[in-house]
Design brief:
244 residues, Spore Coat Polysaccharide Biosynthesis Protein SpsA, Chain A, 17% strand, Glyco_trans_2-like, Nucleotide-diphossugar_trans
Length: 244
């Protein structure tokens, strides 16, 4: 049997212990994209300890666009995103957090922004203008964004938003490290590409618990910021001409 043509878009969703959020989010993704774009959904289960994988297996029989990957070892969100992007068949990737706080209805908005942008714009980052998190999380995020912007000068108001649209090839050319998903605008700009922030919806978590707290985010973020700043300082780019 001939392999089906590659889709225009791959929606990559990393998950860890999100059994109650999987089915509602998959249904929302299909509702948002059927008739809008040729797409596939790539879920990457980061070795969940609940029934997340069982739910995904059942959904595969009902949702033809759904593909399911599973890590052999728990490896974190950035690794799960990269695993999904590497397995994806679409030239463009949309990412969503698996907790349901990102709204799949915003993906067509990102696609529209992409269609209107110049070819050298490779990342369209969601910007949560009305965050539905606790006051402490909003406060921590505000300060983290301010420090990041000062150090990296990436002109991005919200790098922590999980909903993004980017070119697969450009992403796979970026340096990989744990937590890199939080620095995609700066890394894309380092590679010579333009990025755009797009206002998007944000929702309360309906089920399950957050996998992060403010302290572990801050401790990891300090080290990562220094590393990304070093990468930017050490970067060199030049045009290439082939001589005939």
């Amino acid at each position: 049997m001939a392999e089906s043509p590659a889709p225009q878009l791959s929606v990559v969703v990393p998950v860890f212990n999100e059994q109650d959020n999987v089915a509602p989010l998959v249904n929302e993704i299909t509702a948002a994209l059927r008739g809008v774009a040729d797409f596939e959904i790539v879920y990457v289960d980061d070795k969940s300890r609940d029934a997340t994988l069982d739910v995904l297996k059942r959904l595969k029989a009902e949702v033809p666009e759904l593909r399911v990957l599973r890590h052999a070892n728990q490896s974190g969100q950035s690794t799960a995103v990269r695993s999904g992007v590497r397995a994806a068949r679409g030239a463009w990737i949309a990412t969503l957090d698996g907790d349901g706080q990102n709204d799949p209805a915003d993906i067509p908005k990102l696609l529209a922004a992409s269609a209107a942008a110049t070819p050298d714009t490779k990342l369209f980052a969601g910007w949560r203008v009305n965050r539905q998190d606790s006051g402490s999380k909003r406060w921590a995020s505000k300060w983290a964004n301010a420090i990041r912007a000062r150090m990296l000068r990436d002109d991005t108001p919200d790098t922590g938003c999980g909903i993004k649209l980017f070119e697969r090839e450009a992403f796979l050319d970026l340096p990989y490290f744990d937590h890199m998903h939080r620095y995609l605008p700066a890394l894309m700009q380092r590679a010579g590409w333009k990025t755009v922030s797009v206002p998007v919806n944000h929702r309360h978590r309906a089920s399950g618990v957050s996998k992060y707290n403010n302290l572990n985010r801050a401790l990891v973020g300090i080290s990562d910021l220094r590393g990304v700043a070093w990468l930017i300082r050490r970067s060199k780019r030049t045009a290439i001409e082939e001589i005939s």
